[in-house]
Please model this.
Amino acid sequence: MSVELFIARHIYRSREEGENISPPAIRVAVASMALGLAVMLLSVAVGVGFKKEVRNKVIGFGGHIQISAFDSNLSYEMRPIAVSDSLLNALQNFPNIAKVEKFAMKLGIIKTNEESFEALFKGIDENRDWTFIGSQLKEGRLPAVKADSTSTEVLISQYIADKLLLKTGDSFLSYFLSGNDVRARKFTISGIYQTNFQEYDKQLIFADINQIRRLNGWDEDMVGGLELTLKNFDYLDATTDALYFDLQSTADRLGNVMFTRSVTQMNPMIFDWLSVLDTNVWVILALMLLVAGFSMISGLMIIILERANMIGILKAMGQDNSSIRKIFLYVSGFIIVRGLVWGNVIGLGICVLQRTTGLFRMNPEIYYLKEVPVDINVWAILALNVGTLVITLLMLIIPSYLVSKISPAKTIRFE
Model:
């Protein structure tokens, strides 16, 4: 053990035993460090958790990437594309693509005894991944969709159910415009979902894609589009660009050119809003580091002035300023680590409490979520702890030069 570290440990232990006047100031420094780290942990956990939850809801409704006919990408009444087995195989083997799902959209007017309501029917097939919507199921069950039949079961949102006074097991009529004709279809509600994502909950109904095909007079290989789920979201833009250039030079049997869009391109306002949250988190981190750093600077200066006599004696014994500065930086390091421990206890404790109880609530009409989400990431926690320790110690280097201003003759003489 070095001499500097030995002396620093003695100073720190004597502080704990109350042998000097510094404990109040040091407790403030420890509390500031603990509070700063706790706020930083909560900011990152809530910020990352919120982004993930909202992003997953958007992706759950439409996948990471959507492929449709070039001239129907802005319309609910989508122009059909013919999907061949070779195209499906090529997409399923494309790098970073995990799943390929077919879908079709159709606007309809639901008519009940009390109300009329315009809804968007989304046709899906038997290969639909129900993981996301299944987790949002409020009552009932998912619709039974089979390849060799046309199901009349639908899944509606809680918003639509409340609006039309419908419940699981009820039936309703919906009217569709097909060419110049109006066609009616009777559907039965198999289940009700609620995602609190109002843009979708207010209009989207899940139905059998064969219903859409029959209404539009499409062949079995015709769909409104394809939804692709990726293995890694980080490569979303690269995968979208690669698909765009691969598909723009090919056409289906109907002569349609494929158009590729990513989820960020289809929902720019939502993802721009989420990107602003990153800026807010960085601002909070910077402010908390400054608060913790200045508190530690005050604590360090108090310790140095309190130990002026010891510094004078060490200088008289031949210890140089650099060595003495190391002593007080070691002491500061001990105090910072103590604050970090308490900060982790407080911050992670609140995160675990929120995760298990959902104590803190949110307005789902504004934030799409009912509870404040938290994402506990071990690497983020380590990065915050190490970063806070290093940055705070760097902030203490200049104040530690106060040691060089202390004169051995004066401090020893007035002891």
